[in-house]
Amino acid sequence: MKIGLYFGTFNPIHIGHLTIANHLAEHSNLDQIWFVVTPQSPFKKKSTLLDNHQRLEMVYRATYDYDKLKPSDIEFGLKQPNYTIDTLTYLLEKFPQHEFSLIMGEDNLKSFHKWKNYELILENHDIYVYPRISESSVNERFINNNKIFNISAPIMELSSTFIRKEIKAGRNIRPMLPESVWQYIDEMNFYK
Asked: Which of 24, 29, 43, 112 is buried most deeply by CB count within 10 Å?
């Protein structure tokens, strides 16, 4: 099975994340998209970052009705700070029957050459890139690379940071979240 790994803090997961993941599930050769919830680094205490399991719960609720979208806590048990190459190595050992690809925004591809062992990642994994509005350009070594696929997914200019600020300000952000995620945030009084 071909699995696309969509890494993020998902603090909270919103309709932009779901739209991109669902687009890839329906318009690429990926069989499933795993939302890999990035754990909070023990070295960086961020007061706005919810507990790992609360963010995983939101991803679980958001993806529940989608057969091809799955929540993943695979990084929770890995040594911190964690690097993508370590997660990929672990996944290949744990699930040798699967083929893993990365999903990233174009903005991340622009700094991909700074990632730990990026050459090894590129050698062994496909990368699916969704468009983002951003400054600067993609490094030449990543243009016309046969392991990098640019996906014409909708451009989603919605951020979790914006959603948290709006909640804190008492504004209605309900249309920006899956209903089940909005209910959980509201019930738990998150981000207020």
From this structure: 24
Tens digits of per-residue pLDDT, 125-161? 999 999 877 666 666 677 778 899 989 888 888 999 9
Q: What ranges in the chain are assigned the alpha helix state H?
A: 15-27, 52-63, 84-94, 106-109, 118-124, 160-168, 179-188
Residue with tokens 């370590």, as numbered in its chain: 86
The string of pLDDT tens digits covering residues 24-47 is 999 999 999 999 999 976 555 667
Residues in the chain: 192
Q: Could you give the CA distance from residue 79 to residue 124 in angstroms, rounded to a whole number?
A: 22
Give first-to-last CA distance, the chain, whole Å: 41
**Residue 84 to residue 101: CA distance in whole angstroms:** 11
Neighbour-count burial for 1-28, b at 16+ CB within 10 Å, e otherwise? eebbbbbbbbbbbbbbbbbbbbbbbeeb
Domains along the chain with CATH numbers: 2-156 (3.40.50.620)
